[in-house]
Design a protein that fits this description.
Radius of gyration of chain A: 13 Å
Number of helices of chain A: 0
Number of strands of chain A: 11
Radius of gyration of chain B: 13 Å
Order of helices and strands of chain B: EEEEEEEEEEE
Shape of chain B: globular
Strand content of chain B: over 45%
Largest sheet of chain A: 7 strands, mixed
Largest interface: A-B, 22 and 21 residues
Oligomer: heterodimer
Chain lengths: ~110, ~120
């Protein structure tokens, strides 16, 4: 099974600043990588698939990049509703596996 | 709009059984594979099981293989998860999620809580 490792575990950012989240796969997953946002008490929401394609309705301030084993989710200018936990997930190999999450909190 | 609504969660003793349901609406249910994903209290997401659109193929996480069974009734637009021999480590919020043709999850339900405790 492919192990997904996210860093940092917690990211403290001020509103309006940029946030950069990392996700590393234990072996290549090509571009078969998704990002999800989960707010407290809510279900996850798909942000990005194919490593860089925004899901329907996702604002342009969210962008994804990378391929192979190294991926990045960037939030260009954090808004109050963006403080949440973010998970990456690979779907290149079975079973699909998630990273442990990065919590983005208000600085 | 596309909607998934889980039900069937509750408190059950270790070794007990529970059946979760996920009612789908707003899309052609029979055209898409479906996942169950769970989240233990304070923990991350764990994929549990997947079923293809026609029910022909089913896959399970090693942690639930042999104990859980995923199924679907396309005539009722409903996904199921039969959980047997439940353990304390199965305590979690269980989400159903739609698969858009590749193995990620593009729509999620709000989840149903399963607590395994004596």
């Amino acid at each position: 099974e492919i192990v997904m490792t996210q860093s940092p575990a917690t990211l403290s950012v001020s509103p309006g600043e940029r946030a950069t989240l990392s996700c590393r796969a234990s072996q290549s997953v090509s571009s078969n990588l998704a990002w999800y946002q989960q707010k407290r008490g809510q279900a996850p929401r798909l942000l990005i698939h194919g490593a860089s394609t925004r899901a329907t309705g996702i604002p342009a301030r969210f962008s994804g990049s990378g391929s192979g084993t190294e991926f990045t989710l960037t939030i260009s200018s954090l808004q109050s509703g963006d403080f949440a936990v973010y998970y990456c997930q690979q779907y290149n190999n079975w079973p699909p596996t998630f990273g442990g999450g990065t919590k983005v909190e208000i600085k | 709009q596309v909607q998934l609504v889980e039900s069937g969660g509750g408190v059950v003793q270790p070794g007990g059984s529970l059946r979760l349901s996920c009612a789908a609406s707003g899309f052609s249910f029979s055209s898409y594979g479906m996942h169950w994903v769970r989240q233990a209290p304070g923990k991350g997401l764990e994929w549990v099981a997947f079923i293809q659109n026609d029910g022909s193929n089913k896959y399970y996480a090693d942690s639930v293989k042999g104990r859980f069974t995923i199924s679907r009734d396309n005539s009722k637009n409903t996904l199921y998860l039969q959980m047997n021999s439940l353990r304390s480590e199965d305590t979690a919020v269980y989400y159903c999620a739609k698969e858009p043709g590749v193995y990620y999850m593009d729509v999620w339900g709000k989840g149903t809580t399963v607590t395994v405790s004596s």
